[in-house]
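Supplementary Note 3. Input sequence used for the single-chain structure prediction.
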Amino acid sequence: MPRKSESLISRYQQWLETEVRKQKFGKTPPSLYEPIRYLMAMGGKRLRPMLTLLAYSLYRDDVRTAVPYAVAVEAFHNFTLMHDDIMDNAPLRRGNKTVHEKWNVNTAILSGDVMLIRVYDMFLSLEPAKLAEVLKTFNQCAAQVCEGQQWDMEFETTERVSEKQYLEMIRLKTAVLLGFSAELGGILADAPAADRAALRAFGTFIGIGFQLKDDLLDAYADPKQFGKQVGGDIIANKRTYLLIKALETARGKQRKELAHWLSAKKFNRREKVEAVKAIYDALEIPTATEKKVNEYFRKGLRKLESVGGNPHQQELLRQYALALIGRQS
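The predicted structure, written as discrete structure tokens, is reproduced below.
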């Protein structure tokens, strides 16, 4: 990414972090609100609020006015992570203990619940007409995220999951929130309806690509950079794109070995991860996954080309999306 672009992204990032620190969410009981502050303070990519600010900047220069609403999106995202980590029994999030590990499951459930309530509070300063539009769009997105999460859990006990079913699941669970994030910037900036729809499609397509890349990194990332348990999806038999493609293409000895690891109740975690990865490598699954990642990012970038607004800011948004393809964490 060009230095000037990096500087602007860095400025937006600083604004977001400042706003996150301003949000106290609540005071008592401390055990209810401290987990929220703990999770929000972990940082992360701030991908979703950044999409909101970058989309807003296509049409208006007063980008800082959109920051509180962008942080509302980040709060919702973190709410989903708090509950998702419980369902996945995940030990780590961004290199730190997950909330249910650091406190307990009941606290994580309640903290997540109040976090979602605070998201609505964060939108309340919008003018009435815009508030109604934002909440209608947000509620549709939030319901779809829950639908995607339910499909994800059901797929864990489903013998056959097709590529089509999986892509629809990640569209709902992950990608629609990126689509909403970009569309929100357009709504806040009074962008034309056609541009809002294109921004939503852009965010959704790169969201699918982003999740596919996450599937790949879960198995192959450097543990020091990834911030989560590497191989966690393999250990949990998660129906990721990699596993689905392996089940489609494995034959003979490879298919038997894959079936063994999927059915094993007791196993050495490291041994299972390395064995399954060896099968993935032999079947060239990582290459196929990278190809699919690039396919969805190309679709997203084509949608972005149809969006109006400031061409310099559009290039900044394009460069930001391209940087996501090559991420290593």
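The two ends are 17 Å apart (CA to CA). The chain has a mean pLDDT of 94.
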